[in-house]
Specification:
mainly alpha, about 65% helix, elongated, 14 helices
Length: about 260
């Protein structure tokens, strides 16, 4: 395997949807030395090189550029499960740019991945207050409410989205899941079918749809749904998450993930 030496400029400045804005420089806490003992040699080498490049260039960055560099570093740590360092880095991004909704949003993603749903909800709520127009934030809030067992709160958030975007598949799929959990089978069937109509590639939805059809007495429909069942979930278009966790062939992110093999 060839050694991966990504460009510091690409890794540290090519983050997300950068928009110039007036930012306050908050207190930056020292970054801890991450524990990489549980990683493969290739992963350790990659993260060690990345951290060295970050430390070498951070004094040249200010404001939003420094915040984005911390967020990018946080994303790589989170991707490889080095969560203490990921949280330290994203917390610094938040301190540097407290009015930028992207960074509490990413904090919420990290927390949700750890199953810390109450904390994730708080982070997502902060992100929404700062940037109310970013639709994935509202989906994440609904998801955390559902994970916490707050079905009414999740349903309220999702119905508000549906009033604005009647064909938004992520909201429809979550409404279907709530209906399934409450054994409202006809509603579940309707929502699953609507989600599939909005996102036909999401063949994983055929499995719960089959369950709902069977429970409502439609055996033939359930069999047909099971025959179409796959593994592709509903697609949530989320540039912020994709920018940190990586997407697309041939990107630096994809190369980094290859080291995990």
């Amino acid at each position: 395997m060839s050694r991966l030496r990504p460009s510091a400029l690409v890794l540290l400045l090519g983050l997300l949807l950068a928009a110039p804005q007036v930012l306050s420089q908050g207190a930056i806490r020292p970054m801890p030395e991450p524990d990489l003992s549980g990683l493969t040699p290739g992963q350790r080498e990659f993260l060690t090189d990345l951290r060295r490049q970050f430390d070498d260039t951070r004094d040249e960055l200010v404001g939003v550029y420094l915040a984005e560099a911390f967020a990018r570093l946080a994303g790589f740590y989170a991707r490889f499960g080095v969560m203490p360092a990921a949280h330290a880095a994203i917390d610094n991004a938040i301190a540097i740019a407290p009015e930028d909704g992207r960074f509490p949003y990413l904090k919420g993603l990290f927390l949700a991945r750890e199953g810390r749903h109450s904390d994730a909800r708080a982070a997502f709520s902060t992100a929404r207050a700062l940037d109310p127009n970013y639709l994935p934030t509202r989906i994440r809030i609904a998801s955390t409410e559902l994970a916490l067992g707050n079905r009414d709160a999740a349903r309220s958030a999702l119905e508000a989205i549906r009033r604005e975007r009647a064909d938004y598949a992520p909201a429809l799929a979550l409404l279907a899941e709530i209906a399934r959990l409450e054994e409202r089978w006809s509603d579940a069937v309707a929502f699953y079918r609507a989600a599939l109509a909005a996102d036909p590639t999401a063949d994983a939805l055929h499995t719960p749809l089959a369950e709902a059809l069977a429970a409502s007495g439609d055996r033939a429909g359930a069999a047909a749904a099971r025959a179409k069942a796959g593994t592709i979930p509903v697609r949530l278009v989320d540039p912020l998450a994709d920018g940190v966790f990586g997407s697309g062939p041939g990107t630096v992110d994809q190369a980094a993930l290859a080291l995990a093999q």
